[in-house]
Amino acid sequence: MEENVIESIAAGQSVGAMDISVWGLFLQADPLVKLVMLFLLAASFWSWAIIFDKLLRLRRLRAIADRFEETFWSGGSIDTLYDRAGHNPQDPMAAVFSAGMREWKNSTAKGAVAEERVGSVLQRVDRAMRLTLGREMEGLERHLTFLASVGSTAPFIGLFGTVWGIMNSFQSIAISKNTSLAVVAPGIAEALFATAMGLIAAIPAVIAFNKISNELKRYANRIEGFTTEFSAILARGAEEQA
């Protein structure tokens, strides 16, 4: 009876002395579990860097697009707008406009376009604008695949750390032949911590990936709408000159 009491007190002191803080769990973890935690931490930091960069950039591009469209529809000369933005476009919408104007000017350099050639010229203009839009959107979508990868793999990487930690707990039980909480708790705690880190890395990555992808799709649709309207303006101008 007395020995059982002493053993219980010793076990309670061991559990009480165990550091269950974030830093303590990391220091007490198995080397492989530490590696998993460090990898997940690095993935989380890089994900947040991408998230902030994309959201701030999209916000800036939307503001620039608002100003560009306001200038475009203000009634001023598109030649003047091209001279101002055509040589060094600073955003995708201006780049698409410049590509269309450049193709149009090259096609009409020798004067008015014959009526039978208007269709082919407009097709080249439209193709030039869509190719430019594709390149611009490809640049904006860079690093989004990393967010998707983190969102899909981080929970499983954390789960691997969890399984490894639980295996260590069972090994501790087998070696010490003791099933007290003092023996089992450290391994279980570090295992659950690895799972939590996997979820902390994955959840924001998935949410951000979906949000940014939808924002980019809306932005691309906005530019596509602009290219359609711009092509219609060029078509009307060509018909008036013919």
Give the helix/strand layout:
Elements: H1 2-17, H2 22-28, H3 31-72, H4 78-85, H5 92-107, H6 118-140, H7 144-176, H8 181-241
Gap between N and C termini: 109 Å
Q: In percent terms, what proportion of residues is strand?
A: under 5%
Order of helices and strands: HHHHHHHH
What is the rounded Rg?
A: 31 Å
Helix coverage percent of residues? over 70%
Specify the overall morphology: rod-shaped
Give me some keywords for this one.
single chain; 242 residues; mainly alpha; 8 helices; disordered N terminus
Written description of the protein model:
The chain has helices spanning 2-17, 22-28, 31-72, 78-85, 92-107, 118-140, 144-176, 181-241. Helix 2 crosses helix 8 (181-241), helix 3 runs parallel beside helix 8 and helix 5 (92-107) packs antiparallel against helix 6. The protein has 242 residues and is mostly helical. The protein is built from 8 helices and no strands.
Summarize the structure.
With 242 residues, this protein is mostly helical.
